């Protein structure tokens, strides 16, 4: 399989973290590697150059601008809003997205929010409330549920495993 990593900073950061931890002598190296690799596996399906959207089907050509809009506006958009902007019936657009991507509108939004949150956790010192707000949630409990659903961990545990040397004082700030 081939993956287009140029479009995903999170995937690139996870690969860099795998390499960095792989050559380190950390006592938590094995657990960290396993955790980062599982996070990377969640990112890769969206990056396959194989058929995730059937580009040979001419009816999916008009879906590409819709998907691009969703990608760029994931924090604030809804299916109703996208339907209005692109002049589709809401149910029709939802079904078209599911048929062509294999994911529902909400799954696309959740995965994009998770990806953005992971990226913010890797690159910034924002706390969980700030990250939640940035990715489109009104409170951090929604982001907490998202991490549990897709990564089977909490945001602070994710940060600890990705950055094993992060002091506990910073992790407490992340959760506040």
Structure summarized in a few sentences:
This protein is an all-alpha fold and 176 residues long. It has helices at residues 9-23, 29-43, 64-72, 79-85, 90-101, 105-123, 128-134, 140-151, 155-162, 168-175.
Descriptive report:
The chain has helices at residues 9-23, 29-43, 64-72, 79-85, 90-101, 105-123, 128-134, 140-151, 155-162, 168-175. Helix content is 64%, strand content 0%. It has 176 residues and is an all-alpha fold. The protein has two domains: 5-48 and 107-175, no CATH class; 58-101. The N and C termini lie far apart (40 Å). It contains ten helices and no strands.
Helix content: 55-70%
Would you identify the regions where 5 or more consecutive residues have pLDDT less than 50? 50-58
The overall pLDDT average reads 80
Structural class: mainly alpha
Tell me the distance between the termini. 40 Å
Largest sheet, strands/sense/barrel: none
Please indicate the count of domains. Answer: 2
Overall, the morphology is globular
Beta strand count: 0
Radius of gyration over C-alpha positions, nearest whole angstrom: 17 Å
| Order of SSEs | HHHHHHHHHH
| Relative strand content | under 5%
The tally of helices reads 10
């Amino acid at each position: 399989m081939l993956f287009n990593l140029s479009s995903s900073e999170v995937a690139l950061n996870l690969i860099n973290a795998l390499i960095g931890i792989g050559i380190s002598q950390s006592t938590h190296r094995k657990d960290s590697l396993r955790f980062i690799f599982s996070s990377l596996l969640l990112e890769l399906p969206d990056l396959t150059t194989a058929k995730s959207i059937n580009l040979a089907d001419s009816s999916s050509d008009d879906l590409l601008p819709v998907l691009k809009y969703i990608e760029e506006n994931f924090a604030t958009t809804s299916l109703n809003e996208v339907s209005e902007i692109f002049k589709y019936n809401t149910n029709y657009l939802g079904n078209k997205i599911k048929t062509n991507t294999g994911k529902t509108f909400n799954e696309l939004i959740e995965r994009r929010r998770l990806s953005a949150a992971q990226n913010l956790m890797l690159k910034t010192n924002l706390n969980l409330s700030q990250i939640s707000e940035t990715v489109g949630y009104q409170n951090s409990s929604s982001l907490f549920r998202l991490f549990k659903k897709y990564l089977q961990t909490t945001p602070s545990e994710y940060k600890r495993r990705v950055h094993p040397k992060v002091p506990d004082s910073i992790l407490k700030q992340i959760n506040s």
